[in-house]
Amino acid sequence: MDSTWNDNQPIYRQLRDKVVAMILEGTLGEGDALPSVRSVAAEHTLNPLTVLKGYQQLVDEGLVEKRRGRGMFVTPGARVSLMRDERQKFLATEWPRVLSTIERLGLDASDLLKK
């Protein structure tokens, strides 16, 4: 997990987003344990409550489950759910800007498919 933080959003949210990226990329699979709160806090010099808040967001979203005394684990279907949500988010927010740029530059499909 990368330990660079920006000032644009709270660290707990950035941490949550990094775990989401790990799930989407397959670094963390269904049933895999998340690194412990203590280890993440120590490794990245964070307050354990900050890490816990980021993890709690994942629990609230149903992407991670707590297992008492064992830790937190990626829930079954988390990647599929995230992929669906991220695609919808991309199509609603990013794609219109990309399409506008494509049109403004006069590009067509053959231009976009060139390597």
The percent range for strand residues is: 5-15%
The secondary-structure element order is HHHEEHH
CATH top level label = Mainly Alpha
Stretches with pLDDT under 50, minimum 5 residues: none
> What is the CATH H-level superfamily?
Winged helix-like DNA-binding domain superfamily/Winged helix DNA-binding domain
- Percentage of helical residues? 55-70%
Mean pLDDT: 92
CATH topology description: Arc Repressor Mutant, subunit A
Q: What count of domains describes the coordinates?
A: 1
Q: Largest sheet, if any?
A: 2 strands, antiparallel
The coarse silhouette is elongated
Distance between the terminal alpha carbons, to the nearest Å?
30 Å
* Radius of gyration of CA atoms, rounded to a whole number: 18 Å
Number of strands: 2
Give me the number of helical elements. 5
Looking across the biggest beta sheet, what order are the strands in?
1-2
Summing up helix and strand content along with how strands pair, one would put the structural category as mainly alpha
